[in-house]
Amino acid sequence: MTPLAFLNEELANVERVLKESLRHEYGPNRSRDYYEECASRLAVMRATIAALSPTDRLAIATQLSELGRLSSFISLLERSHLGEFSWPFADAIRRIADLLLTELDLSGNEKRPILHVVADGGGYLIHNEIIPGYSSNRRLAVVAFPRPLKHHVLLHTIFGHEIGHTTLFAPHISQDLTDAILHLVAGGPLASHGSATQWIKDSNAPVDLKSVLADYKARAGHDFEFTQSSWSSWVVEFFCDIFGCLLFGPSFAAAHVALLKSMHSSDFAVGLDNPTHPPYGVRHILVARVTQALGWSAPITLARDGPIFEAEKAFFDYIQMGPVDAWADIFTTHQLSGAIDAIRTVLDANGKLLYTSPKRDDLIRLIRNLCDGIPPVINELDEFGNSQLSSTAVPHILLSGWITWIGSDKLSLTGSLGFFDLNRLCDLALLQQCGIDIVKRGSVI
Ligand SMILES: [Zn+2]
Questions:
Q1: Domain that holds residue 423
Q2: pTM score, whole prediction
Q3: Which of 182, 206, 307, 339 could form a disulfide with 268 if both were Cys (CB 3.0 to 4.6 A apart)?
């Protein structure tokens, strides 16, 4: 078989896979764009391949590589069966992505990203098309939810971090966001990979980290040192934590604690063989400081609100870190406020996405609903018995869920509502809120 014959065979295979993917049932109105983009790319490739010379090995290899990338995106289409993830939450992520990632083409027309959602066996991830190929019209991104956590919407706020990663590759906002990163490396331990190496080996570093460094030296035969790549990975991780916190507020901080603390054997030990992520404890301190800097670290309710106030206090204790190790608090107030301002500018300019705190009365209503086993949306009757529909922001629904869970021993919960039950109620609230928003807009699906 010649290279060109093999390429044609592969093209036919990928076209077949795309057709077969249609036999599945996917999210409402969502897979058509994704399918059409893939089909359009295949049509462009077919025309290009038809004109190739059988001796042009470079062009054949390039086409094969482009085909391979598209094939991996098509295979993800098959993993998005309805019911395997929270589609109201997925819808919220899609709205955020549309607002943040829509680009303009050379004629000034909007090019919206095509975001596809799948249930995956792994963790929270966004497979992002960093540099679209020549055949593409719109950028593809695939959001992967962990299948076992499909109803755990309270944990899904961690997607704020993943969206941070994705935005760094969006050409129209990446420069503004790079400013945020420049603030983080403007001084202090993360100013360079050399200073980061000094910092991690500092005599004041936590004992757990020292032991990991000693273990690394014994195995590798030399001291650990940051490379340019590992240093920049850590900086980006810090940036994404700030980004996620600005997007989802305190419920991002709570998911950050719940998920990441469980995954690490200690706050400061870190894998040094492939050091892509900073120690959990350093990240937690950063997120806690972001909540403090923005006034999101103290109760909105008042002491006279009794149990709800106590529950809120318990929640804010949960997302703070207690006494902070000075070694692990790596950014100055000036660096942090510079990074926050740069991200805030982008979030404000693209759909007012910056988190804002709920009103006290609204938060109380949402928590009372949950205590009664009712989804936390605000829907009241006026004096004539007509339903008064309100828009409740997704982060506020999730905040009420987190406060009710962390402060459950302060509240009187109907029955024995556990973490899973509260997640289901919040998931239902997101679904109801989608319905309320449709009614308020006066549109019908
Ligand atoms: Zn990350």
A1: 360-441
A2: 0.85
A3: 206
